[in-house]
Specification:
- It is a single chain.
- The protein is of the alpha/beta class.
- It is built from 13 helices and eleven strands.
- The strands form two sheets. Strands 3, 4, 5, 6, 7, 8, 9, 10 and 11 form a nine-stranded mixed sheet that branches. It has a two-stranded antiparallel sheet with strand order 1-2.
- Strand 1 and strand 2 form a beta hairpin.
- The longest helix has 17 residues.
Length: 318
């Protein structure tokens, strides 16, 4: 039997409520501002309006749940679920009757996967989707840590998530490894840098982790915290540069500021490449994640197929 209070609560949630929380929730989840006052400013709202309207949404007449942790300036788990719900409802609401449909696909990806592998699938995906469906397509990609994108996927914030694989069992999520043969390499400027010269490349020089202490070296934050967390401190006269994505690593290398650690995929052809001596540290994976038992939209299914997940699953069943 339906609880009368729950029925009243949901009956009172309006499109205006959802539009408000979509704006506020997106601002908070995007990391804009370190206080609720800053969130209000970034969202284009007055602080009293933010405070009062958010309080009404959290009251028993609306959602009856704490949606925002004011102390941490972050969405609660319930807030993330409401934001995902608001976006799904508003996506449908904004497609007015008697107008050509425009579909919005929301996915999440780690930056390292997006900038190296995933982006290369989009030209063919967008072209074939339009040809097959006759619909226009907008794509929203949320970038975050692997753990955060799985959280977004679980609450329905996104339909698909792209990252690595995991040995941890997720009751609500499943993944398929698309590539498990990816390798990490060191890249150097076209003219070389220090011992990473053209001659060294031709002679098959394979650097070890210890070698990175004797050169200016650039890598992304996730690699430093993960596989390469035991890097030695740079020797005197050398620096380590830590950035958030592989595009920045390549930019530093091209500027001749450092050599860099990247996935060997889509690397500019003029950069010098060096395989690592320790093969176990170079292995990487690329996987696509979805919710178990949750049907995908046509756009999400098309991307799922374009990346190769359906073919991979069919091959695995043989």
């Amino acid at each position: 039997m339906t609880n009368p209070e729950n029925a009243r609560r949901w009956h009172d949630v309006t499109i205006a409520d959802l539009i408000f929380f979509e704006k506020v929730g997106s601002t908070i989840s995007g990391g804009a501002g370190d206080s609720m006052l800053a969130v209000a400013s970034a969202a284009g709202l007055s602080y009293p309006h933010l405070h009062n309207t958010l309080g009404k949404l959290e009251s028993i007449e609306r959602f009856g749940r704490r949606l925002v942790n004011r102390e941490l300036n972050a969405l609660t788990k319930e807030g993330e679920e409401v934001l995902a719900y608001a976006r799904r409802v508003l996506d449908v609401y904004r497609v007015r009757p008697f107008r050509s449909s425009r579909v919005t696909l929301r996915i999440a990806a780690t930056n390292r996967i997006l900038t190296t592998l995933l982006a290369s699938y989009f030209p063919a995906f967008m072209e074939t989707y339009r040809k097959k469906t006759g619909l226009e397509l907008n794509i929203e990609i949320l970038e975050a840590t692997f753990e955060q994108l799985l959280t977004w996927l679980e609450v329905g914030e996104v339909e698909l998530a792209f990252g690595g694989t995991s040995t941890h069992k997720h009751e609500k999520l499943m993944h398929i490894a698309i590539r498990d043969d990816l390798k990490m390499i060191v890249v150097a400027p076209p003219k070389g840098l220090g011992v990473f010269s053209r001659r060294a490349q031709k002679e098959g020089y394979r650097p070890t982790v210890k070698d990175f202490a004797s050169t200016n070296f650039c890598l992304i934050r996730r690699d430093q915290r993960g596989t390469f967390k035991n890097l030695p401190e740079p020797n005197e006269g050398y620096s380590r540069i830590v950035v958030d994505n592989y595009s920045s690593v390549v930019a530093m290398v091209r500027a001749e500021a450092a050599v860099g650690l990247v996935i060997n995929y889509g690397v500019p052809g003029d950069l010098l490449k060096f395989d690592l001596a320790d093969a176990s540290q170079s292995a990487q994976s690329f996987a696509i994640w979805r919710r178990i038992g949750s049907p995908l939209s046509d756009a999400a299914q098309h991307l799922y197929d374009c990346v190769g997940a359906s073919k991979k699953r069919a091959k695995a069943k043989k």
